[in-house]
Structure formats: structure tokens, C-alpha cells
Amino acid sequence: MSRDDFYASPLGAAYSAYMERPRLSRLLGRLLWGGDTEAYYESMAAVGEVADRATIVDCPCGAGPALRALEPGRRVRYVAADLSPAMLGRARRRAGKRRVGEGIEFIEARAEELPVETASADLFLSFWGIHCYPDPEAAVAEIGRVLKPGGRLVGASFVREPQPKGFRQRFVLRPGVGGFGRMCTEAELVGWLGDAGISISDSGRSGVYMFFDGRRGG
């Protein structure tokens, strides 16, 4: 099953549903991946911290879980981008239920080639996408292109160990298998971010998860 087929399938719908439920996501994360997603949900607070008329880019937006942090009536430009039409459809519906859909731009696009202006984003959300991309380095470079000088990046990704040990690292996190793309290590991701002009101010690990927060240099 391709990634597009997966997201359009009942399994994709189930994935979208549990990611919208923090308590369930944390439980399944610990059982399946040995990690806690609490930091992921906490980091969504960045959406509420931007100034009025700021630009937020959420890529991949998935089914729109980060929209929980967007209050109705906020005067911001919110660009929700994803390669999956099924996920974009779910995100549109979620935005409608939360009454925040009026100011959101839903865009079907590859993360490596976003139709977003250079140096236009005040905040870039990169949740659970980098480990899926066939060219994660190019996707990270695109984040650097889109962010304004001083713009903030908040994200989360699966990462591999340089010398994989343990069942998950050796047999589950396999590049090109099970929906994963090329994958990367923590050190590789930090290096790519640095090459893109993004300095990480805060990062953390929980099992196979890496959480990161940084800013684009001037």
C-alpha cells in the first residue's frame, strides 16, 4: 500500500482519529514506539503565541491536529499543506467543526516544493513528516527558505540511531518500508537545519521521537 493509499484507507482515518486524541496518542505511542507524544501537543501552543496578521505554515498538516491551538477569530494567515488529498479533506472538516476554516489556505503540495513565498512565514510547523519524505534534506531546506529571519520552527519526527539497537530501531524504522522515507538520525537532522539557517534552541527525545524548536537566523 502506497502512502497516498494508506492515508485514504480506513487505517489512515484511524491514524487521523487517534492523533486528534492526546490521551490515546500518548498511550499508543508508548506501546508501539516507546515514546511519549506529550511534548508534541504542548508545542502546538506556538500557534497561539504568534502576533496578529502573522503567517503560519503547517506542513504536513495531516488531518489538522494543530488546529486545536488556533482560536476562532484569530487574524492570521494559516497555510495548511499536505501531499495527501484525503488528509486535506479531513483537515478542512476539522477546521469547519472548530470554526476556524475561513482564514485557512489548504494546499496540496510536496514539502520540498511549497507554493509559499520566500521569507514569509513567522511560524513553521513540521509535525511527523520529515521521516516520511524521500528527500528530507530538501524538505528541511524548503523550511529555511519559507521562514522569515527570526521566524520560528516547531516540529517532531521519528529518528534512527547511527548504530540501530533494539527491536524498533533495527526492524521497524527501516528506510523506504512501512510509509517511512529515507529517514535520518538526530545528528543529521540538526545538521540539515543548521545548513538551512535554523538554530535549534530546544530539543528532546522520547523513544524514537525527536522534538525540536528553533529559529531562522537573520
Distinct helical segment count: 9
By CATH's scheme, which homologous superfamily applies? Answer: Vaccinia Virus protein VP39
Oligomer: single chain
List how many beta strands DSSP finds: 7
Describe, in plain words, how this protein is organized in 3D:
With 218 residues, the protein is an alpha/beta fold. The chain has nine helices and seven strands, in the order αααααββαββαβααββ. The longest helix is centred in the middle third of the chain and has 14 residues, at 85-98. The N and C termini lie far apart (43 Å). It has one domain: 3-Layer(aba) Sandwich (Rossmann fold), CATH 3.40.50.150. A seven-stranded mixed sheet has the order 3-2-1-4-5-7-6, sandwiched between helices.
Show the helix and strand layout.
Layout: H1 3-8, H2 10-19, H3 22-33, H4 38-43, H5 46-49, E1 55-58, E2 77-82, H6 85-98, E3 104-108, E4 121-127, H7 136-146, E5 147-158, H8 167-172, H9 186-195, E6 198-206, E7 209-216
Parallel strand pairs: 1-2, 1-4, 2-3, 4-5
Antiparallel strand pairs: 5-7, 6-7
Helix pairs in contact: 7-9
Q: What is the gist of this entry?
A:
The chain is 36% helix and 23% strand.
Notable features of this structure?
globular; 218 residues; 7 strands; Rossmann fold
